[in-house]
Design brief:
- The protein has 161 residues and is α+β, with helices and mostly antiparallel strands.
- The chain has one domain: 2-Layer Sandwich (Mago nashi protein).
- It is built from 3 helices and 7 strands; from the N terminus they run H-E-E-E-E-H-E-E-E-H.
- It has helices spanning 2-41, 84-94, 143-159, and strands spanning 46-52, 57-63, 66-70, 78-81, 119-126, 129-132, 136-137.
- Strands 1, 2, 3, 4, 5, 6 and 7 form a 7-stranded antiparallel beta sheet that branches.
- Strand 5 and strand 6 form a beta hairpin.
- It is elongated, with a radius of gyration of 26 Å.
- The chain starts with a helix and ends with a helix.
- 16% of the residues are buried.
- This is Lipoprotein.
């Protein structure tokens, strides 16, 4: 009888440990899946902002948590790691932009037609899709992207000093 009780208690002990391990593994999988999903949803795509005229050129690129700034045609870019707060602010502003309507945004001014402002464009590349804005005057972006463009320029200038 004692032998039977010993075998039964050992079997239940090992069985309960196995269930615990399985539950812990399943919970870890759920947490890992949630964090991957959060990363996918909250990643900023590749952002390219360009301004140029006959005598001026500036390109700002945000890619993989870094910001690249080119201030002359053919020059090598200077780059920095984006600060976490700058990244979060750009991400928040990006999430308010309608990418499908980006190419049809109306520019508020036409100073670029008489060299009063550089020609500017903004584009976002997500995996296989690239969304590019219509041309607008540098310094006078359409209202729908104004906050994002101004913040992007501000971050680039702050780091470029």
């Amino acid at each position: 009888m004692k032998l039977f009780a010993l075998v039964f208690s050992l079997m239940s002990f090992f069985t309960s440990c196995k269930c615990n391990k399985t539950a812990v593994k399943e919970e870890a999988k759920v947490v890992n899946t949630e964090s991957n999903l959060e990363e996918q949803v909250s990643n900023l795509p590749v952002v390219v902002y360009q301004e140029n005229t006959r005598g001026f050129y500036r390109e700002i690129v945000v890619r993989e948590g870094k910001i690249f700034v080119v201030t002359a045609r053919g020059a090598k870019p200077a780059f920095w790691e984006l600060k976490k707060e700058d990244y979060k602010k750009l991400l928040g502003l990006y999430q308010n932009i309608d990418l499908k309507g980006l190419s049809s945004l109306k520019d508020p001014t036409q100073k670029r037609f008489y060299d009063g402002a550089p020609i500017a464009t903004l584009s976002f590349t997500e995996e296989k899709n690239t969304y590019t804005s219509s041309e607008f005057d540098g310094g006078y972006p359409p209202k729908e992207i104004e906050d994002f463009v101004n913040e992007l320029i501000s971050v680039a200038e702050k780091l470029n000093k």
